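ugh ok so i messed up the first submission bc i forgot one of the chains. this is the corrected input, ALL of the components this time, i swear. 487 residues overall. if the numbers dont match what u have on ur side tell me asap before i send this to the collaborators (the ones from the other lab, u know who)
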Amino acid sequence: MLDTQSALLTVNQMTEADRLTIAAGTAEEVLMERAGASVAREIIKAWPPCRVAVLCGPGNNGGDGFVVARHLADAGWDVQVGVLGPRDRLKGAAAHHARLWSGLTAPLTPAVLDSADLIVDAIFGAGLSRALDGPVAELLAIAARTAPIIAIDVPSGVIADSGEASGAVAAKLTVTFFRKKPGHLLLPARHFCGKVVVADIGIPPSVLDMISPQTFENDPILWRGHFPILSGDGNKFTRGHALVWGGYRMTGAARLAARGAARAGAGLTTVTCPEVALGVYATALTSIMVQPLGDQASFVKLLADERITGLLIGPGAGVGEQTRESVLAMLATGRPTVLDADALTSFQSDPETLMASISGPCVLTPHNGEFARLFDPCGDKLLRTRAAARRSGAVIVLKGADTVIAAPDGRAIINSNAPPTLATAGSGDVLAGIILGLLAQGMEPFLAAAAAVWLHGEAARTFGPGLIAEDLPDLLPKVLGTLFSQI
Ligand SMILES: NC(=O)C1=CN([C@@H]2O[C@H](COP(=O)(O)OP(=O)(O)OC[C@H]3O[C@@H](n4cnc5c(N)ncnc54)[C@H](OP(=O)(O)O)[C@@H]3O)[C@@H](O)[C@H]2O)[C@@H](O)CC1
Ligand SMILES: Nc1ncnc2c1ncn2[C@@H]1O[C@H](COP(=O)(O)OP(=O)(O)O)[C@@H](O)[C@H]1O
Ligand SMILES: [K+]
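and heres the new structure output, hopefully the right one now
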């Protein structure tokens, strides 16, 4: 199992974590007290005392709200509480904490927001079961124009499992409990969460042994121990030989990928390209070798070289029969293969042939458009990436600001460190190359893909504004240096 420090829990798994903790002797009221107290603590840390409106819903999220109200009032803050629906509808721990609130409550109308300097959104959390009612959505819209919002667990309207966020408004701060939920990272919900703080409410991490989470936030803790290690007595061949299939019209894409592979540590990197483009590649590349492609038979012969340990096709490959044939020849070797861009689009009219040909370690790196050409685009991003991985037998990297990496066995990792400066031509080519470089060194495909996506995001973050794809490979040494100096 992957390290559960960065596990993301579904609503059902979080309920199970609560249940196991309660069964082991912690009362539900105590968990709620700790949850609300932690939210109040974060508020007091970040804002000076002021007038706060606490908006409480009919479930346990509302119960947390009553705890926050009590703690802030005890600290001398001016607190107004608004409750959705009749107060006697509250049950269990929420009813208990509502009783402990000695101040007034008002119905949940815009009047509660009058003169508020800060608003606590305790309307709905994990229990949101249907779209927000009109009046609640209207109230939230007014709240968003009135004062900064602190959301308890998730902003109301966010579906914690899927990242849908209909009717939600942007919070400045979201305080969640024990572990983050997928909705804190997936778009569009991520944009509504603001800063996310995870509070410890005394749920022991050992409950995760029973829950076996399958979804994680991308973090080096998941893959650092699997990263290729240089052996003192190795040579360039023991570091792997990465082969990139280069096209002849858009030569930049394969060159970017090749530099990504080399900087990720492949001992040798070769671009094989049509004779006509040889000069372009050879002039632009120095340590990266260039090999003429010849006909399909000579390509197959080149692939027979057992020292080649990782293959990539797609960036700048061109869509068509030659790309299709080359993909199939690569897959037939059973060696680790990355398929990107045109290699994916070339199978648009016949995805079955592609799926049936994947038997060895393989990573597909589509953006949303390429994904929809091969797979069912319905469902939330986690769901559809997992389904594609299961269907293809490959690791799927569904790119975007919230890239999801899924393995055929159901594990999934959501990436969160990619800055928007990565939305620049060619950055996906570099990513495909970094994955190739790690695969060529023998890293397991799922973890290689996760590591590459993280390194790619971190490289862009390190660089800052003005980034172009060419910058990315040369930023890897700094990112890797920082990463491994921390061990
Ligand atoms: N368990 C624990 O120990 C701990 C839990 N904690 C806290 O509990 C929260 C989860 O609580 P929860 O499960 O009670 O769900 P919650 O988000 O309050 O909403 C459920 C209520 O809303 C209603 N409702 C739903 N959608 C609606 C809509 N669109 N429009 C109108 N109504 C709607 C729904 O009605 P129903 O669907 O049943 O008709 C039900 O009444 C979690 O996020 C965390 O903050 C912490 O204290 C830590 C310890
Ligand atoms: N808004 C964004 N925020 C963060 N990362 C992004 C954003 N847009 C794109 N990316 C990342 O940039 C890369 C773009 O890849 P891709 O779409 O294949 O572009 P190209 O084909 O030009 O290389 C992917 O790694 C993607 O995850
Ligand atoms: K909430």
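quick check: The longest strand covers residues 51-56. that seems consistent at least. The chain is about 40% helix and 15% strand.
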